[in-house]
Amino acid sequence: MSDDQSPLRAQLNRIAAHEARVHIGPLTHLMRTLGRTAGFSALYRRIGPVIDPRIARIRDGRLMASLYGFPVLILGSTGARTGQPRSSALLYIRDGDDVVLIGTNFGQPRHPAWTANLIAQPEVVVDIGPERLLCRAELLDDDAWQALFPAFVAIYPGYANYLERRGGLTPRMFRLHPYL
């Protein structure tokens, strides 16, 4: 992407401006503390997928950014078995222009369904704040996983606890490459 004035570059710049508004919010410390516990994870894996997409869409994602203090996107994928549209609110990190996701499934010893969706159909849409990106998902290898996992733990320390509870099952990690 050599043209700094390209529509994709402009979109990525607007996303960066949105991400700059993510800050430690009133629930950040609570979520980071409770998220490490098995009980809260069990509860949140039931209610989070229901409430997070709704909260993430309020005020173009600004409410979630200021409330939770985590960078959250809405992943739009195609169901691997059903072919139906699916959406998931997920914490993410950026690596250059790419978005990186990890499928911890709240520490459960199985992969979340959205990861199978990305393997079956890697063309996805991603909503970050008011912007919608078209992306192609790439399942990352172990070296990339090892290099990027600490960045997830830095944002949300509960990921380290999730890893311990997964019984040796390494969470799938994906790099999403944006395109026009």
TrEMBL record:
The lineage of its organism: unclassified sequences, metagenomes, ecological metagenomes. NCBIfam families: hi_GC_TIGR00026. This is Unannotated protein. Belongs to the F420H(2)-dependent quinone reductase family. It comes from freshwater metagenome. GO terms for molecular function: coenzyme F420 binding; oxidoreductase activity. It catalyses: oxidized coenzyme F420-(gamma-L-Glu)(n) + a quinol + H(+) = reduced coenzyme F420-(gamma-L-Glu)(n) + a quinone. One of its GO terms (cellular component) is plasma membrane. Pfam families: F420H2_quin_red. InterPro entries: F420H2_quin_Rdtase, Split_barrel_FMN-bd.
